Model the fold of this input.
Amino acid sequence: EMCIRDSSNRQSEIIVKYWEKKTKIKTIYVRTDPGLTRQRNLGIQKSKGSVIAFFDDDVVLESSYLEHMTNCFRRFPDIGGATGYITNNPEKGKIKLAYQRFFLLSGSGRKGKMLRSGFAAFLDPKYVNTMQPTEVLSGCNMFFRKEILDEYQFDEAFEGYSQMEDVEFSHRISKKNIMLFVKGAMLIHNRSRSERLDIKRYFEMSVFNHYYIFKKNVKKSCIDW
Done:
């Protein structure tokens, strides 16, 4: 079952109805006020099934992606969620990477986790053979068991484009549930900038959201501050 939410015009609805007839996939189309976290929560309420998947509209899945994810949830019935391998993430220069790591601003490494700064350090795929536990999932492709989502909701304090809502949500779930990075589930993320914020508003949101995550989720010792 596919749940499509929010659009500035009827074009999305027309496309959804076309593919519903072509693929026979049951589709629910709901208009809402803008807000990614609000739309995600509505999608959870309207969706059925044992596993719920979230995708951005600018991703391209490799042909074996869903097979790898399905096998993962069948093989490990106790996991709460999973994410795949974005193959076109840009490589960061050594100077930029060293700067970000020193100030705990993001980066990647052997563990997927939330840093003491409130930023996320996603798993570096070169350290993963097939699967590995992670505390943070990528919002452009993430899966959760339905019973997990009956207990948790996305934080609707994140408004609009809601940058980092995926990190905050998945990290919250990771405190009680195992989640996996699945290397074989590969995809491309084209990162469309269509209808997103201008650069000034984008960075204002980035600063505010990271501070909000820090205040909400990080143990605020003197070193953290």
Summary: The mean pLDDT is 87.
